[in-house]
Amino acid sequence: MKREDDNLKLIVLESSKELGTKVDNHLKKMFKSKKSYIVPAKEIWFNDGHEKVELLETVRDDDVYIFQDIGNYSISYEMHEMINHASPNDLIQQLKDCIGACKCHPRSLSIVMPLLFSGRQHRRMCREALSCATFLRELDVDPWVKRFITFDAHDEGVQQAMAYTEFDNFFATNEILEQFINNTDIEELKNVLFVAPDFGAIGRMNFYLNSFNNENIKKDAGSFYKKRDYNLIVDGKNPVIEHSYSGSNDIAGKTAIVIDDMISSGSSVFDVMFALKERGIKHVYVIATYSLFTKGIDKFNELYEKNMFDGIYTTNLSYIPEPYKKQPWLHIADCSEYIAKIIYNLHNGKSISDLLRDKSYPGKMLAEKFNKQNKK
Description:
Blueprint: E1 8-12, H1 17-31, E2 41-45, E3 51-55, E4 63-67, E5 76-79, E6 82-85, H2 88-102, E7 108-112, H3 131-140, E8 145-151, E9 166-170, H4 173-183, E10 191-196, H5 202-211, E11 218-228, E12 240-247, E13 255-263, H6 267-278, E14 283-291, H7 298-305, E15 311-315, H8 322-325, E16 330-333, H9 336-347, H10 353-356, H11 360-375
Parallel strand pairs: 1-4, 4-7, 7-8, 8-9, 10-11, 10-13, 13-14, 14-15, 15-16
Antiparallel strand pairs: 2-3, 5-6, 11-12
Helix pairs in contact: 1-9, 4-11
């Protein structure tokens, strides 16, 4: 008898091995199966810099999900006797080769790329390419790609580049807030200031604010404006001269939750921490879906020791080095079960609406936490 999961396959490229393996284990439990859904594959990097993906098992008439983390800078290869680390551009080409290896055989082909390629280059400001939109358009015209799955896209508007391919943008809000609510002292949750580090993060901040519902909590919101020097470019961007705060002045003693999609070098987050502390904020937490730490974590360790912030909450949707994971201030929400539920529903033709934007779960968790407190 044919099982409903017989034609489900995962192609987990090396960059997403840890996350993809966890998703595979969750799917085994959901389908009550002992078999792995991961297709064995070879990832070959040649000494001249070219690469190829070779599938070691057929995917004919299967629902195939390809996992690729373009933020995983630990992937290395030898080129002309030098060790190179794969860039996002390298990993995008590898993804294209993987799609080509599947050819026309799958019943459907879906791409799981939590960290969207060139997601922050979503607008043309000068004579430059629209790299993100161009990449999505290339997928859109590929007749075999049915669906593109990402998380917390910097600008959902990039999906306009796809006319025929499904674009599903999910948020890890519930996974992050579950860990944050469980870890945080109840007294710190009673008076909360939600903060957007810049105007671009206001929508994301409001989403978290509206998910954080409980009658015992007093909520407030504020945002910062980044004043930049547009006559100077440092590390490929205009440096921030000043962070101007907009919001209630009566924020002393509150718990600040700074919301953003990404921590890159951390410089903007540091400025916000200092500005909040100067205004009398008692506790500072940072929530960012992706923590890239492009300039390492030494500064984070230094500021944590000086009590400038209490913790950073992020996800395992993109690569974080093992030594970083051991820091007491870094809390990583596991999103693998969430992704497994998405794949399970899609494979079985079920709705994913409740998985897209469910704001009710954090409120239920807060109610449970305060109820336990009241019973003591």
